[in-house]
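User: Structure tokens for this complex, please. No commentary.
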Amino acid sequence: MDLNNNVDFIYTDWSLIETRFDPDKIHHRETVFTIGNGYLGTRGTFEEGYSRATPATLLHGVFDDVPIVYTELANCPDWLPLSITIDGERFRMDRGEIISYERKLDLRRGILSRFIRWRSTGGKTVDLQFERFASLASEHVTALRCQIKPVDFDGLVEVQASISGYPENQGFNHWELIDQGSISKAAWLNLRTRNSRITLGMGLGMNVSGAEASVIVTNPPGYPTVITSFQATSGQAVTVDKLVTFFTSRDVENPVQAAQQELADLPQYSTLLKEHSLAWEQAWDKSDIAIEGDVRAALAVRYNLFQLLIAAPTNDDRVSIAAKTLSGFGYRGHVFWDTEIFILPFFIYTQPELARNLLTYRYHTIGGARRKAVHYGYKGAMYSWESADTGDEVTPRWLPPNDPYGEDIRIWCRDREIHISADVVYAVWSYWLVSGDDDWMRDYGAEIILDTAVFWGSRVEYSTKYEQYEIRGVIGADEYHELANNNAFTNRMVQWHLEKAIATQDWLREKYPEKAKELETRLQLTLSRRLRWQDIIANLAIPYDPNTKLIEQQDGFFKLEDINLADYEPRTKSMQTILTIEGANKRQVLKQPDVLMLLYLMRESQEFPYTLEILEKNWDYYAPRTDITYGSSLGPAIHAILASDLGKTDEAYHNFMQAAMVDIEDVRGNAHEGIHGASAGGIWQAVVFGFGGIKLTENGPVATAHLPQGWKRLQFKINWRGDWHEFDLKAEGTNMETLHNSNSNIKGVIFDLDGVLTDTAEYHYLGWQRLADEEGLPFNREANEELRGVSRRESLLKIIGDKHYSEEQILEMMERKNRYYVESIENISPKDLLPGALDLLEELRAAGIKIALGSASKNARPVVEKLGIAKHIDVIADGYSVQQPKPAPDLFLFAAKELGLAPNECIVVEDAAAGIEAAKAGKIIAVGLGPSERVGEADIVLPSLENVHWQDLQAKLTDLILQPS
Amino acid sequence: MDLNNNVDFIYTDWSLIETRFDPDKIHHRETVFTIGNGYLGTRGTFEEGYSRATPATLLHGVFDDVPIVYTELANCPDWLPLSITIDGERFRMDRGEIISYERKLDLRRGILSRFIRWRSTGGKTVDLQFERFASLASEHVTALRCQIKPVDFDGLVEVQASISGYPENQGFNHWELIDQGSISKAAWLNLRTRNSRITLGMGLGMNVSGAEASVIVTNPPGYPTVITSFQATSGQAVTVDKLVTFFTSRDVENPVQAAQQELADLPQYSTLLKEHSLAWEQAWDKSDIAIEGDVRAALAVRYNLFQLLIAAPTNDDRVSIAAKTLSGFGYRGHVFWDTEIFILPFFIYTQPELARNLLTYRYHTIGGARRKAVHYGYKGAMYSWESADTGDEVTPRWLPPNDPYGEDIRIWCRDREIHISADVVYAVWSYWLVSGDDDWMRDYGAEIILDTAVFWGSRVEYSTKYEQYEIRGVIGADEYHELANNNAFTNRMVQWHLEKAIATQDWLREKYPEKAKELETRLQLTLSRRLRWQDIIANLAIPYDPNTKLIEQQDGFFKLEDINLADYEPRTKSMQTILTIEGANKRQVLKQPDVLMLLYLMRESQEFPYTLEILEKNWDYYAPRTDITYGSSLGPAIHAILASDLGKTDEAYHNFMQAAMVDIEDVRGNAHEGIHGASAGGIWQAVVFGFGGIKLTENGPVATAHLPQGWKRLQFKINWRGDWHEFDLKAEGTNMETLHNSNSNIKGVIFDLDGVLTDTAEYHYLGWQRLADEEGLPFNREANEELRGVSRRESLLKIIGDKHYSEEQILEMMERKNRYYVESIENISPKDLLPGALDLLEELRAAGIKIALGSASKNARPVVEKLGIAKHIDVIADGYSVQQPKPAPDLFLFAAKELGLAPNECIVVEDAAAGIEAAKAGKIIAVGLGPSERVGEADIVLPSLENVHWQDLQAKLTDLILQPS
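Assistant:
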């Protein structure tokens, strides 16, 4: 798997930056750029609207009926639409010309921004700066700002800011329009869900500054719109702020009135932004994880935590986090074990109030769990595999075919994936253990633990043949096996659950005897039930062989047909898709860890069957049989932790990054359906429990760091029984101040592109020549030599010489030359790699040396892709990366930083004098390619990369260091 | 069942008039007021829009994917929205006050109009006259006109005319917005279906006349809108015309361009209307049925034919008529046997080109039928029970539960209701027989007949035990039995089909030997297949007992548990709902005719097993066991024809009206889902084949009329082999000129309301008194006596006397008094009936006397409802019915006409002098109630209705006639 398949991203410590608008990726990027505030989530859809866009704003708890999956989170009216018309032509990136583009998610402040310089088909150039946020300080408020600055014209600009009352869940609109209207210069909208009858009130306001602007409100049915228009002047920015408020009948009596009132009371945009930023500062103060030495990982970890923080309900304990958070339509907003087992630890340890909200949801929905138990003929509370507003089972029963003659596929999870009840209890227990919140345990947790224990008492069967208790006909954690008897994960979790149930009852009796009595009466916790629990604990089948130390995943698993996953590589599909459902059922292939998942859950408390030895034996057996790449996204983070425990650092890091990048880089190809919430939660556990090695002792948490290669420092906090514990872990032997400049220390190579890896210098020359000829400027190959490594603007200025041109003309010429160049590089292919380049890249790769590109070109990315070397390059620093061009050192320093390396851990390979100068200025060893008159200033001079090997270079570097400087 | 449950309708020969806006009935009325033109259908949604409205515009063939039912007709953008703002207040009938209201569907010209006098909450009164049509002359064009006339103010009026690009199929929006824009003062919209990728272009234009009006175009996403605003002046009408064009990629290469062009080329509204009216005149010239003597039936028959005419594709032979036409979402636009068996005869006999289009659809979709055969393991073509664009089977397989623990219900029609293939062939054969269209038969029909015969050859099984061919495991016409062996209907239809297949092959060989050869090769019509067909014809099980003449519906039917449907009365649900699916399966209860359906289909050609004797025996057995009221809507019309054949005239008429009113009066409670197309088709057959008794002879069609009671004349045309045959049938012994005025001839009683049936005279008095007191006008009980039977305006003028009031003041006072009155009558209940009234009404009812109300009051309908006597009254003539008030005779004459009676067949019962005078003027016998000084002019004077019986009245009438005049 190529994890670095999104070369149009730049990763910095706190920001995810998209450098290119790619219409084919809009659905993926809508998920990636989701923002939210724990009340609502909004996908990263563009304000101006595109045909196939899938905008979504999802509010916690706003469910409505739908066939097959029973209920789903209803997509709410889209608050983003902002249509900008420049002198009669509507701004859309698929028309006209994008001159520059950058979209940035600022994780630290929860702000999504976008800068575009766009030229209309009519030739008007405009700078547009968008910015949006969902206020973390005022959860009913969202805000959007757009700054509009004409570059080369004066003219009429019109901006329409709307709420679209026609949102859709994959085509379905859950809303009925009740009414709409306007008050002074604001509009409002009042809607109601079709079936659940939840009303939603929204307010819409607009402020314009920087121009004399008219503001009018129009009210096409379902589409309240505020329109402003103004005369814009070249070089002068006009700012349009759009403010939107949301209230539902889940929040207040009269939502539309509340939305109007809130809107009327709002402060200025800048004040809202300040309050919002402050709230984020406070959230990160508790929840941040800082990683030094691996900027990609550092960003990815923060990204995943960000997505969890915006999904957690701040003021509502009747909702929980859905499998896809509030970021997409996948799994319809339903809640799975993903929340309790994967996501909750992050909140338990860093935001315990949010963890409490999430767990209290299970208390409020216990009625649904009881109805489910009754339906299946059991007692107590049987939690639903998929749960929504009421807790009733909402897992679809059938997957309907599309083809008129296709067959429906029966989905068995609702009936059989019963471990969910123990999973909920595992989370309840963890929360209690870590928070020490006895009040909550007494009022909420205990009832959950005990009534689900009652369920197990009715679900477990006794086998007279084997004289043991059994749990038959289940799906375990591994969903490739759809009808398992005595699934090890399920059985041990049930046993563990019953142990905790007895402990809970004892604790209650001791500490809160009245509550104990009340629950014993209401839940019928008779003595005979308690004795039966003890009997089950003692006699429940756990298929563990003390000789081999192997735990058999389920009855007969080891007798299933064996499999060698390598036989199926390379693949891009799950093993179930390849083998069919039936084929997977009868083979020893796992969708995700099952026995290993059990060991992971028992690891922290060192309970049976966890020992390092058992882990080792079972890892060796199960890990190779687990479809970790295309099975469940829940697997990789867990494998990362266990591999880390077992000293398999590379494998751990690989699994970890697979999980960390699942959404940003769309590792599984399904990120458009929404954020992988469980994977995000697993990331926190992998860093803190895995790489940080946090273990709970009687005196609180202690760390034993196993940092991945390259990580220099890892910092995070956790809360243990009300106290904060801060951890600042450094790589063993790492001391940044005392790093020596020795060749053994070279960990990265930064290549210039043109003239080094390929010969686009020729294409540049041809582009400049054509331009110069058209403008009647003197230019030739010799003059071209002067342009090596020089930025586009500087190059042009050199060609122009003394002749006078206006700024506008200069911009036009730069773009003209670029157009010629871009046209000519369309045909670049791997054949255009310079001799020796590919061999050296591959050698470096094999030697574990990181590779960056450091090119002044703004076309570096497409060129690298066309050359087919994108997969060899870790970081691209290009014409968009820094302000100061070579010979300033900025570009190479940026590249080094992105590689996670100090400058003295890198070398630069350059063919231009300006580039050599830049490297020297950055205190980076420079390798010059070409004649001495050009690159003589370099530390090492070579004619080209032909026949240059890493070993030779290393030798030269060693020589260099031994030489007196 | 109360067929007359819609007292807010007036029926005239050609118009259906709704007299009241009832928000609870909007979905039903949207269906009822559907208009269309064979290209599209548009439900009768109000232009101004209401929360729970279900607007729909459905275009033939525009299908798109959807789960469960595979594909459905995609609701297209709503072209109706017209929002009118009167001095800042938006017109909506649920705010402000409706002063008068009338909606009219003019069937003759295909125009839906509405007149409202509305007063805003701000007190501004305006007359609005809406008119809309889908041009029958230019199928891509729809038009809407609104005339706006302020009654009592001058002010600003704004009109927004939009296309809503957010149509929905019960919440689901099938469309993606591609683009939109405007050209001069017109807007356009370009959309594409999500899955089937059909593009739709629409144009929107507006013309305003009668005021200086600005027109601007705005384009909120998906909601192109043309806005006009103008200063309106009291008493002066301004006319706004909205014109819309539609093209899809099914029609042209570039739909949006075509829509723009068509819009640009359109003539004036008035010209469009003229062309449209002319096209309707031509259509009715062929297809009309005129009935005299029963205005309700006359209107209903035309209404049903209208609904069929607007649903039939004029220029497209790749589509057919869906079960719910283009008028609603029921059955998702899928095509059933409803078209071939129920609807087609109307077209075959009156619009053969349309019939050909509909049948050619089956030819174009034979590929789907072949795929279905392959899927089920058979040969040839197996038509789909539900068919859409491709002919593939689109019957849903499951009915999913709503409740999370409910069970899905398996729907077996796709697998088992196989008679559809024979039904299609029945229609092909009928078309050929009637039209004599040999070319079509050669090119299309023959292949359908023969390839479906191939299917039967593979579907029929041979039973060695019984030495016969059998068809096992089917659903017959009666869908209450879901797993039948040797269903009589299916087996005989298959046998008949194979007979026709052999005849077709012989005919082809004889007449078109090359085509015969081509088909024989392509369809593999081997000799062995033909011999097998013959063998099947000879040996297929047809469970007929020549002794009893009974045909057993299926193997073992007579052994099922018997049922007495009367035991379940009264009921409002189907027997299947009452008994459950399983319960109905095991009883002798039918959803709809099955054996009787077979007899009906074989009746015209007098083929086996049809004889009148067999019909009689089987009617007596099956009719009482058929759930004709709440089973299938396909049943009543067929029962009506057979009952008519058997001389059961009353039953025939009852069944006929049940079918005729199924949509207008929502007899089954499901008319909101769309027009019952099959029932509408059945109506034509019931009138022409049943009451008209049309039989085909060698010399063409001949009639033997069995007109229902009261029908004086029945006229229609049919086309037989290219020639038109006109029929003008009169009731036996009916001679309108020679009807005598004898008491035996009294067939109807027309009651005044106030002072006769109830005492609202007192409420009127109180209303007038209050008004008079407020205005300081002299008035008392004595003066009130003068107002009996006098219209509201005349009453007021009497009270005012000489005093001067402006017209506006008069209008206001009339409404004020009415408001007082309406407030006071809110509490009327059956207790308020005057003594004797109810007894007399029931006696008249029992004696078969028709009853009308003839009241000047505009509140007559609500009063009648509150009194609980609506079910006793056939016709209501009220303040809306005629222009001239009593003492003019118009109201009573109107009532008589509506009853289908001559004036001399009626008597009037009145308490007011003006009423007696009106009756006399209309030459209607008058019964006066009250003192002689008031009603002495009456023919018969009685103190009140107390203790008045029909027998006594009859006696007095006889006396009267014997008296010298």
